[in-house]
Amino acid sequence: MRVMSGLLAAAPVDVADDVLATTGIGSPLAWQIVSLLALLSALVLLLRWWNEQRKR
User: Which spans are transmembrane here (predicted)?
Assistant: First the structure.
């Protein structure tokens, strides 16, 4: 029974690895682009907030 539970526990990880490998989401370049977009979004929000505070 332990072998079966070990196989079942490993299955989702294998599926997730396959999905990441086939979609290209796991590539470092994709993560860098996503991180850069998130950073730029945060910067825009911060500048908007700062501009609103300055107007008051």
Answer: 31-50
